[in-house]
Protein 1
Amino acid sequence: MESTTSNPTSTAAAELLSGVNAKVLLDSVDAFLFDCDGVIWKGDKLIDGIPETLEMLRSKGKKLVFVTNNSTKSRIQYANKFRTLGLSVSQDEIFSSSFAAAMYLKVNQFPPQKKVYVIGGEGIVQELQLAGFTALGGPEDGEKRAQWKSNCLFEHDKEVGAVVVGLDPDINYYKLQYGTLCIRENPGCLFIATNRDSVGHMTDLQEWPGAGCMVGAICASTEREPVVVGKPSTFMMEFLLQKFNLSTSRMCMVGDRLDTDILFGQNAGCKTLLVLSGVTTKSILDDPSNKIQPDYYTNKVSDILGLLGE
Amino acid sequence: MESTTPNPTSTAAAELLTGANAKLLLDSVDAFLFDCDGVIWKGDKLIDGIPETLEMLRSKGKKLVFVTNNSTKSRIQYANKFRTLGLSVSQDEIFSSSFAAAMYLKVNQFPPQKKVYVIGGEGIVQELQLAGFTALGGPEDVEKRAQWKSNCLFEHDKDVGAVVVGLDPDINYYKLQYGTLCIRENPGCLFIATNRDSVGHMTDLQEWPGAGCMVGAICGSTEREPVVVGKPSTFMMEFLLQKFNLSTSRMCMVGDRLDTDILFGQNAGCKTLLVLSGVTTRSILDDPSNKIQPDYYTNKVSDILGLLGE
């Protein structure tokens, strides 16, 4: 029987969650960290059994935290989304990659007189503003068009000291040129990626290109690699630990992506539970080319409730 | 004095073009292969001295060929551009990456009943159609918008057997999703890149993101690497050789990019001449991190004319 202690370098196969080990898991952790897309919801639809399962966990005194790489919303906007879906989650239980980007600039003492160019959504812009920074781009550049014309210079703000790239369904060549010029021509300009997920369940029916798509575009035009602030980077874990007086070994990361959620959990020393309700199937998990094995796997979050016979 | 024989693995520093070695170069080659952006023109402006230099080379019996990674035009459209700029160049002297993509499908016997989705311009669409293939996407998807809506499936044609990605100033999320779905879900779907240039001189005043940017986006969302048909791949060289009864050692590749033009020339066994009128500066050439040394370098193409005292 496999050990239930999480081991970041273990390649032991993941255990299917069962009535027995679900109880052991619950007794061994004080906090559950949940990814959102493909775990809690798909697009704007809650996955079956979520409200009851979260309520059960809270009633057992477990802390709940939501760690999402989807940067399109700020923490406040995510709290609103939870509320709209009938779940009571406060903004300080939410750690979005939009928040992570703003915090990265803050802890690294980004000068407030410098500006930040955003290739991404309102969520990033809001978090930057909440942190006291000046954000350019984002949704306001969604309708801008770039034109190749003789004797006509595409201008960019020389005061931009960082470009933040996240999920951007309004990506266009104007933004790609603006971000590229800032990174290539403004001395010391930072290149920050909220995350690099290749695809995600932005809607209930299918996957769509993730931030990894936009980040890949800028990596190629600038020939530079970004700092990644979202999963699997453990940058966000520092902020979680400041909130809870817990050891990471008393936390369980629940997610649907091996190379972000599960790797994040392993890197931070948490237990890890993969759910198959999102981007990862059993065959991907079992494929010999997959090197990331969570401690446990199950179909969906509400299995925890079902297996405990509650 | 450095040898004038090209050696693809040589790291001997490039020779500045002079009266003496320019004459040697001319006597040792029968054909000049020119890149276009940053070498012949920048945007829609001819670089100084081009018409006279090309005329001189033709008068000496040299064959002229134009090998461009810019896929926005077909060969016919490039012949028109040359004519508009006062240069007489026929379409079979032009090898564009748009033509390369169509030829790649042809020589690999891509079934004509399968379709090709294009993330790129009219040039790729035209060359595909000239080669007898059915092209979807391209300019007709420029104004399409993708929407994340519940219960609403983004459809894609299951008969798409190849996605061709090139320079696309009208890139949008609709095309990125379409191409991503084809590559991820249509069995055996090919992923072809016209080229991977990071930036280029699309206008006279500055650089803009190149096809590498769009290709990087699709690599990010599909987690796949493409077949590259443009420089530095020597795929196009086969077609050049079919036209001319020449050894590649009797050719000189003239370009402004080290990692495409010069590398292409070296890989094919040609002599190589770097011009500093485009994306590469002297300090980039001399930087210790640069591993690609052309045989010769000079400021611009018309130096050949000037140095020979013609």
Protein 2
Amino acid sequence: RSSDLKHPAPKAKMVHWTAEEKAAIHSVWKQVDVEKDGQETLSRVLITYPWTQRYFSSFGDLSNAAAICNNPKVKAHGKKVLAALGGAAQHLDNIKSTLAHLSELHADTLHVDPENFKLLGQCLVIVLARKLGAAFTPEVHGAWEKFVAVSCAALSKHYN
Amino acid sequence: MTLTTADKALVVSIFGKVSSHKEAYGAEALFRLFSSFGQSKTYFSHFDLSQGSADLKRHGAKVLGALGEAASHLDNLDQALSKLSDLHAYNLRVDPANFQLLSHSIQVTLAAHFPADFTPEAQSAWDKFISAVSGVLTSKYR
């Protein structure tokens, strides 16, 4: 029909971020210590949800909370994960493509259940709440829950 | 899933710090829940959901009060929560997914107010605790 020429198919919907959400994500990100907060985040995942240790059999001693919190491989990997999320935070309008290669990696090579991304996201939010206290207002918290959800969705894209 | 002696101690000790702030922290946990997970608001169309509202304070105190009851009866949750279990199964019928969202919101509230106490071990203990409570509250759903 002639109307199709005037109205081409719409592009895939982008995530809409309000100015406040972007500000909340960027201002908190500035305060993140990828090494320390990454270590704490991953440690909390492995401690609170011990079945997640299934992916880390090469990491050595994960036998108790102290071992996990002091494990150098956990520290290194936590830093890597948080740095990747930082990449997504710098590209809020492009999270899907920013995380696309990681989605492929986790699906096809690492064979990680995407449910685990949610667990890590929850622990990251708790780490931020501890770090920022009252400054982690419900509004700022909400922006981060959205960021975490969008990042999880992007990482899950390649699975089906 | 069972709570270890250490888990129980962590639940009781942190609840001790919460118990005199049930209204404030309960309201905060609920407001965080509604701010982050809009789907949970569908159960509260009759509430004033603005921050610090009387409805949120009253209901927040009720929720944390029930958790306090549970914390005092960790070896007998089924019996301690039996009435609440009936209420959720036959009356409220809140979709089970929401318990997880509220659990997380409560934990974020605890982490924000008690950063030193909410260690990874404490997080694990509270996650298990609220999960156990949620299990009892949904146990009669079908």
